[in-house]
Amino acid sequence: MAEIKPLRAWRYNQNLSNAIDDLTSPLFDVVSEKQRKALYQNPYNSIHLSVPQGPDAANHAHTLLDQWKALGTIVQDRLPGIYVYYQYFTLYGSSKELCRKGFVCNIRVHAWEDDVILRHENTIPKSVNDRIELLKKTELNVSPTHGLYTDASFELEQYMDEAIRNPIYEAEDYQGVRDVLAVIHDAKIIEKFIRILSDKQVILADGHHRYEGSLVHMEQQRKANPNHTGKEGYNFHLMYLTNTEAGDLRILPTHRLIKDLSNFSEVQILNKLEQDFIIKPVEDADTLNEIIAGKPWAFGLMFKENAYKLRLKPEALATMTWNFPDVVKKLDLTVMHYFIIEKALGIPGKDQRKSENIFFDRSFSDCLKRVLQEEAQLAIITNEVSIEDVKNVCHSGATMPQKSTYFYPKVICGFLFASIKENEFYAPAYSWV
After folding, report:
1. Which domain holds residue 329?
2. pTM greater than 0.85
3. pLDDT at 399 (0 to 100)
């Protein structure tokens, strides 16, 4: 099962880290072009390592990383530790503060078929290749992926709560989330973390492309190394781990936008949908997300002039021809991609991952605005996915449609970096590890 290790993180030197807010950045797959331009203005911002610029971006990041190490811009911690990471946040429409508790560590990379690290989404090959190239050149995990373990006893939370009282960093990120980092160096406590995870599977919540990049890199290095032992740094990956049993784990919906479809006709689409859905007009489009909230197989359809609530007829599910296990067929997102996007809009399932007609937006208000401004022909509003759905799909061995989940908040980049270079990965002689 899961094998975790403490790490000696690389972090910004004390002079720079006093302004940590200016050094953090969003993950490469969520940062907007406008955000990128602003962040690139700071020569020390972590985005220069996570989303390097230029035609030879990976080599540029490698050169910059060497400079930062040589000049002391970033410094490696002397002792290995488990890094406790808490995120304090509120959700839209509520003033209640929530706290997602977790910790950052190295975790052994496993192939998907090992059933140790479980995925719930497919990846896009180009994005994986970009991550492989960056990892190969820098030998650095710039930001942790997000993994989920299950521990109903909450044994580790007491140690995390104690550590977070003495934070290394506190920052407010681009989401308005308060991010707090602390570290545990106590060997006996770290051994408890290792033991608790040792009999568990880990569900990959976020960062499928980065994890798969580590997996491909490991396989390449193992083949190239005749003296491979399994202890090398390339066998490990940086991960932020949170407990699925915690009440503050949140998954937000990701809506679909449709644009540039030829022969697009609202009347024809509705006629096709009538076969499988109960359709009701909605007077105010800005209430669609509230109208469908919590209702299974319910969707909002937003055209420029009109809006509708759709509810799948129960008997229609049996007509789905996609060869998926029932646990996947019954998902709202599968229903949406089959009955709406394939049957009504005419985009076959096999083409949807690469389709230039389908876009994703997590903001309901953005969807409304983009349809009204004719940047999109149609918005399909959906409900959030439950953690139980994610668990069930992972344990079935299947995957969800692309962009199924948006675990909130996102982990930020810049608090720490993890090297897999041999002379930097291994703990020093004076360490207990």
Report:
1. 254-383
2. yes
3. 80
